[in-house]
Amino acid sequence: MKLADGLFLESCREVAKKYPSITYNEIIVDNCCMQLVAKPEQFDVMVTPNLYGNLVANTAAGIAGGTGVMPGGNVGADHAVFEQGASAGNVGKDKIVLENKANPVALLLSSAMMLRHLQFPSFADRLETAVKKVIAEGKCRTKDLGGTSTTQQVVDAVIAKLD
């Protein structure tokens, strides 16, 4: 890991030199997670290797309400993938999907990120607003958010809130 971490840091430092107007900082992952919990507003953008990114994303998901509400995107020069942004509590648990109990919020918010990436910001805004309204209303939530609604009921509620 020290070799891989060293190469990653070396690459980051080289890129950072090309963008002097952007503040570049380094932080050890365990301290980063602690700082994320204690003072999350100090962070704007984080660049991490995959393993550390998973640790940070799961910490952020815990702060935000769980993995079921955390959108994610992996954007490269030529391709992009949008998915649930933290280790999903329903991954590998087919029973949750079969019983219609999986939280669709992260996937819906990831879809909004994809729409924005594809230059459809108004559609992304509509979807995000509808999801936020459903969550804030509190009537339709899956078990992980303290409710009893099914996946389909949450999706239907979001569709009903689309402007």
From TrEMBL:
It comes from the Eukaryota. Pfam families: Iso_dh. Signal peptide: none annotated. Residues 1-158 form the Isopropylmalate dehydrogenase-like domain. SMART domains: Iso_dh. Belongs to the isocitrate and isopropylmalate dehydrogenases family. This is Isocitrate dehydrogenase [NAD] regulatory subunit 1, mitochondrial. The lineage of its organism: Eukaryota, Viridiplantae, Streptophyta, Embryophyta, Tracheophyta.
